[in-house]
Prior knowledge:
This protein has one domain. With 121 residues, it is an alpha+beta fold. Helices cover 45% and strands 15% of the residues. The longest helix is centred in the middle third of the chain and has 22 residues, at 69-90. It is globular. The protein has three helices and three strands; from the N terminus they run E-H-E-E-H-H. A three-stranded mixed sheet has the order 1-3-2, sandwiched between helices. A hairpin with a 5-residue loop joins strand 2 and strand 3.
Amino acid sequence: MGLHSHITLPPIALVTSQRESNRVAKRWGYGSAPFFPSGSVGGRCSQLTDASGAFAYCVQLVPKESRTSIDTASILVHEAAHIFQFMMDAVNEDKPGTEVEAYTLQAISHKLFTLYSETMQ
């Protein structure tokens, strides 16, 4: 466990289909689910907002049999960066400290890798 384990993150989900995306939005009470990408897109991150203004994030990973584990990891890190950007925008922070950024990205990436690992079991 690193320092990233002490960072409290908003709810984050990793889905691989529109059906899963719909289920997450319904379970979390965020109304309609984000549109699931298709084609050559590797993934997409959507910020969901509930009636109270609370945020959650849904990362949609387009399944591809030909994708390597390194490709998958790089897509998840890319989407983690978008979650971080959404989080900073939500608190009007345009210049977070380098360690804040690094530890938060590490925590988000760790969460996404854990969720991905759980979907592969």
